[in-house]
Amino acid sequence: MDRSDPDEELLVRVAEGDPAAVRALVARKLPRLLSLGQRMMGDAAEAEDVAQEAFLRVWKHAAGWRPGVARFDTWLHRVALNLCYDRLRQRREIVLAEPPEQVDEGPAPDRGLQAADTGRRVSAALQALPDRQREAIVLCHYQEFGNIEAAAAMGVSVEALESLLGRGRRALRLALADMVEP
């Protein structure tokens, strides 16, 4: 067995139907595939679809994998990129005989500028919080941890976490009070 490809042994086990190997391979490769898909597609849901389809192809073709032709990681990323390009082509290929006769009901062009300004203000207010309050807010609101999980990650009790969240939210509300529309 060629040891130059760190994924070869795992891929052999996937081909043999080893569920632990499948889980290990997904755990090892999924974050980078999602990142690639997100950057290529600009959409998290499509990035997940691309990653899922790439893993389906791995499982279908694992038994036929030929070591030494290309590194598995290179092949997997090529598969994911090809899936992205296929999806991007499908987006472009929607051809209409005539332009639609409807009013664009999307946000006004200046809404993007307002959203960017709001994002900067929220980010600055978040950065102004004491470290532990900011950590609690980020874990619970941005990383979507539950209170028990966030408290464990911070090494505090759930009650202490809730106190940090309460103080952080009050400070953010006060810092951003002028942004609330009447």
Summarize this structure briefly:
The protein has helices spanning 8-15, 19-41, 44-61, 72-92, 109-128, 131-142, 147-154, 158-175. The protein has 182 residues and is mainly alpha-helical. It is flat, with a radius of gyration of 23 Å.
Give the key terms.
mainly alpha, 182 residues, Arc Repressor Mutant, subunit A, 2 domains
How would you portray this structure in words?
This protein is mostly helical and 182 residues long. The chain folds into two domains: 8-92, Orthogonal Bundle (Rna Polymerase Sigma Factor, Chain: A); 120-179, Winged helix-like DNA-binding domain superfamily/Winged helix DNA-binding domain (Arc Repressor Mutant, subunit A), CATH 1.10.10. The protein is 70% helix and 0% strand. The chain has eight helices and no strands. The protein has helices spanning 8-15, 19-41, 44-61, 72-92, 109-128, 131-142, 147-154, 158-175. It starts with 7 loop residues before the first helix and ends in a 7-residue tail after the last helix.
